[in-house]
Design a protein that fits this description.
Structural class of chain A: alpha+beta
Shape of chain A: elongated
Strand order of the largest sheet of chain A: 3-2-1-5-8
Structural class of chain B: mainly alpha
Distance between the termini of chain A: 50 Å
Low-confidence stretches of chain B: 1-12
Number of strands of chain A: 10
Helix content of chain B: 55-70%
Helix content of chain A: 40-55%
Largest sheet of chain A: 5 strands, mixed
Radius of gyration of chain A: 25 Å
Low-confidence stretches of chain A: 1-34
Number of helices of chain B: 17
Largest sheet of chain B: none
Distance between the termini of chain B: 14 Å
Strand content of chain A: 15-25%
Order of helices and strands of chain A: HHHEEEHEEEEEEEH
Order of helices and strands of chain B: HHHHHHHHHHHHHHHHH
Mean pLDDT of chain A: 88
Mean pLDDT of chain B: 95
Oligomer: heterodimer
Number of helices of chain A: 5
Strand content of chain B: under 5%
Chain lengths: 282, 533
Amino acid sequence: MAACRRVRQVNNIMIRKSLLSVLGLTGASAAHADWALNMPKGITELSAETYDLHMMVFWWCVAIGIVVFGVMIFSLFKHRKSVGAEPASFSHSTTAEVLWTAIPCVILLIMAVPAAETMIRLEDSRDPDVSIVVTGYQWKWHYKYQDEGVEFYSSLALPSVEARPKQSGVDPFSVENYLLEVDRPLVVPRGKKVRLLMTSNDVNHAWYVPELAIKKDAIPGIINEAWFRAEETGTFRGQCAELCGKDHGYMPIVVEVVEADAYQAWVDTRKAGDAQVAQMEK
Amino acid sequence: MTTAVADSHEAHEDHGPAKGLTRWLFTTNHKDIGTMYLIFSLVMFFVGGAMALIIRSELATPGLQFVHPEFFNQMTTVHALVMVFGAVMPAFVGLANWMIPMMIGAPDMALPRMNNWSFWILPVAFGMLISTLFMPGGAPASGWTMYPPLVLQTGDAFPFLIFSVHLMGLSSIMGAINIIVTILNMRAPDMWLLKMPMFVWTWLITAYLLIAVMPVLAGAVTMLLTDQFFGTSFFLAAGGGDPVMFQHIFWFFGHPEVYIMILPAFGVVSEIIPTFSRKPLFGHDSMVYAASCIAFLSFIVWAHHMFTVGMPLSGQLFFMFATMLIAVPTGVKIFNWVATMWRGAMTFETPMLFSLAFVFLFTIGGFSGLMLAVAPADIQYHDTYFVVAHFHYVLVPGSIFALMAGAYYWLPKWTGHMYNETAGKWHFWLSTIFVNLTFFPMHFLGLAGMPRRIPDYSTQFTDFNTMASVGAIGFGVSQLIFVYVLLTAKKGAHATDRVWEAPRGLEWTVPSPAPYHTFDTPPKLRVAQESFE
């Protein structure tokens, strides 16, 4: 899986280099490698399903495009006055019109069925193993693990905070994961059903992590649900996706997927730490 | 036919246009008002374009270079409002004012004084909107969608935003009433409905959409106003209101609004492609039914803008299916245009080039639209640059290319001279190359997960952003060629009455330039068409 992804990445880099050299833009940006042309396949069953749906519709569009643009381009070369074409005078064809109404309907049906199936699975957030309340703030996230008694804020990490102002003097390329790093990531166990309960403390936000195929609005006064079951460990990044004011671009999301025992160990340390803080506050 | 027109023209020579500023202030002439609409929208196109260039300059490389995030958000908001309500919509109303009376054989619009008023409201509305840039707290920065609760954090600009939206709506509603009344009452006696040119048809449908949805927008923003100043809680959760309700009401307006900006564009290219293919429009009646179908569907798909707000499953499925259905009538239109070209004898003057690019590039926007309709995939695309790419493809090489095509097509009829064809071709080719360089890479950015409306981004998004910025600057500069074409529009050879080789429509029976008053006596459509054989 990881090897497969690396191959994909190498391919992407090669495509990118050729694209850029065509445009003469290579020099400026050879340093960063994490570059993509397509939606990530992600690390959950549903993110892979979403990716497949996306590719299916995409290839249908390519096929329709080849037919329509093919006919059009043929006509543009063949039926031009300068090559002596004589205009025909027809303006109707019931057969053609029935066909090009009926065929798209069939194609749409072929797309709609799997899309509806995925949609139904996406909405099934029953029986979670872990429930986390996610609250959007201007401009950070707050996570509260419902049964574990762990809660914390998650904000933009310090190196990005120092680099982001105008004339900060810090080159964004020198900051690792510029604008996509937080001080405290969300930690979740691999292979467990995690349910997120989203809400907001002020304005609308949206919690978006592409590799989990989750984007859900966090809206004041409303609790929205989303769920995922991560199949791989690793660090996955996303951002707030709903305009929420001046620092909308500065409230990233980082999810760390770890094995179940590592997760339990993390919960225990957090709990001990929180208890200590509570003790000190007394 | 032509003699009848010439006679009536002579009879009116004594009361031609008034002189000086009052001609434009008090005019009730559809041609004068059309000209004012078109010039106003061109000015707004450059104002909104300048804002787009500020946005693209900031996004050319990571890190903040030129503006602060607050100002960046003001730019994205005002850019959209100016382009939607100030550039695209008034430009189509301008074309409607100029061309609908001449296409249906009417002497003027049915309600000329209201016509004057609906134009002159616009400079006031946009003067007010743009003045908010200089107010404490700056211009509105909540996105043109004005979602609460964020929009309620706007500074002093807030009531001015609401009032300017009210005025734009007022102007649009009056314009729409005028167009409907004109089309339904003042056609040439033998032009029954299905004989109307496509541009007239699409505008008739558009005008109904405007009347249906502009009051809805006015209601939504009024509720924002009372939430802010009069203690109501329509959209405030703390007082028992619902922030999502605003989104439902807004998009009930917003989705038909999308078709308000594209249906007249369909009309324009449906006039141009037959002319330069030297062949009648394929499936005129099915084009009418398709446009009506699109208009109807536009009322029942609004929540596809809201797949991430947390709707019930049944709602999401309904809006997904309904949205996918729009592909059918839209497909019919595209197939009909291709069938019109098929076995024609095409030539490629500037209006035809813009129309062909419209068909190609609008179709690409249609493809990404179909992808966006698939709800699970939309959850990934939503609020990323994929959406930005999609709606700019349907609005820039869609609506704006159609407007350019229309302007080149009818310019000789307006000025009486042929425009500079070489400059026109340069304008076309540069616009087409740069528009794709600007917006195509945005698809990749969105798929890779770059959200919209952010002033700065992580470094892996750099390459495509740089490309888009280069493209945007190139596109902006290319539009100056259009200004050059307009400034030299009267220098070319004299245009004949018919201007092009094979156009068919009443507007080509009057002299070029079109006299101040046309069709004082209603023409006979059949006679005009016979004269074209």
